[in-house]
Amino acid sequence: MLARPDPTAVRTWRAPGRVNLIGDHTDYQDGFCLPMAVDRECRVVVTPITGPAVRAHSAQLPGVLVVAADGTTDPATVEPAWGRFVAGAVAACVGAGVPVDPCALAITSTVPPGSGMSSSSALTVALVVAFADRAGADLDRTARARLALDAEVRATGVPGGLLDQMTALYAEPGHVLLLDCRRLSVDPIPLPRALGVVVVHSGEARTLAGSAYAQRRAEVEAVAARIGVATLRDATRPQVRDDPRARHVVTENARVLAFADALRAGRIDELGPLMLESHASLRDDFGVSTPALDRTVALLVEHGALGARLTGAGFGGCVVALVQRNHADDVLAKVARALRAGGVAEPLAFAVRPGAPAGEVSAPDPPAGP
């Protein structure tokens, strides 16, 4: 443990949401992903209090939460449901030897919930970083990512990978991240200024709990065991040719590496087709797209996007697209109009830029004198 900071100070931490430009359902098979932290975030203001509890409220979601600071509250028993992530973060930290002092948490977020942009991971990363910093815990970014994943698994019961947490902690402004999920290495790649990234919600909310996410993971793990490899990172295309779930993982890894190479070399014309191939694979081989997501992808391409695909685990949520940056507003306006005409009452469509990594928010400078 490092020296613990002033336990009486009111402090603020933040963590960004993310989009994944390409490479979904590869992280838990030791594969490759190409995510980007975005300029939307979750913030947690932490105020020390007396007593045995952690208290929390959210500016966006209803309810007030009280959980035991010693980590004994079972996240599965917590209501409202968003509070399970707080309970999971407390339990994960205490279980890892990081004490959580009693405190009040004021939570705000600009990451749309149910979007596939990692709103829950932004919350758990912000909480874990806050608790670790307050405890003076000497944990590197990868250890904090693992701790945040543990918190989320405790909260949801869904066995996710480290894509979201690593993205939030290793984000670099102006860059996307080539993430190697076996080595847990991160290679930042500059995003050309001429390219814009836009996000459009399909109109269909997404939740992993209750979805077929765990089933998909079990299916690909079974294929890896059957063909005798530790994970599908080591599988070849001929080995998985006749299994669509595994075929997606193997071909998606290849697409991620091709996308990263094209991005480094400035071969912008190759990026859109790779995104569309990825979406088709997620739809046809992995079975995690929906008609609403497919329609949103088609509308984006119809109205000028270079390429588009679902982002995140699928089963609803958002589509991410690459556009010429100076055309972003026009593309978004046209797609929003088309979605509205198709029955989406209040289409959510916006541009994002590569955001900053999770961490404590510095206190503002005092105002200048007269």
Structure at a glance:
The chain is α+β, with helices and mostly antiparallel strands. It has helices at residues 83-95, 119-135, 141-156, 163-170, 213-227, 237-240, 244-265, 271-284, 291-302, 328-341, and strands at residues 11-22, 32-48, 53-58, 64-68, 103-109, 175-180, 185-190, 195-201, 307-310, 318-324, 349-352, 359-360.
Explained architecture:
The protein is an alpha+beta fold. It folds into 2 domains: 11-187, 2-Layer Sandwich (Ribosomal Protein S5, domain 2), CATH 3.30.230; 193-352, GHMP kinase, C-terminal domain (Alpha-Beta Plaits, 2-Layer Sandwich). The protein has 10 helices and 12 strands. It has helices at residues 83-95, 119-135, 141-156, 163-170, 213-227, 237-240, 244-265, 271-284, 291-302, 328-341; strands at 11-22, 32-48, 53-58, 64-68, 103-109, 175-180, 185-190, 195-201, 307-310, 318-324, 349-352, 359-360. Strands 1, 2, 3, 4, 5, 6, 7 and 12 form an 8-stranded mixed beta sheet that branches. Helix 2 crosses helix 3. The N and C termini lie far apart (43 Å).
Order of helices and strands: EEEEHEHHHEEEHHHHHEEHEE
The total strand number stands at 12
Helix content: 25-40%
* CATH topology tier name of the largest domain: Ribosomal Protein S5, domain 2
Terminal residue distance: 43 Å
Question: Topology of this structure?
Answer:
Layout: E1 11-22, E2 32-48, E3 53-58, E4 64-68, H1 83-95, E5 103-109, H2 119-135, H3 141-156, H4 163-170, E6 175-180, E7 185-190, E8 195-201, H5 213-227, H6 237-240, H7 244-265, H8 271-284, H9 291-302, E9 307-310, E10 318-324, H10 328-341, E11 349-352, E12 359-360
Parallel strand pairs: 3-5
Antiparallel strand pairs: 1-2, 1-12, 2-5, 2-6, 3-4, 6-7, 8-10, 8-11, 9-10
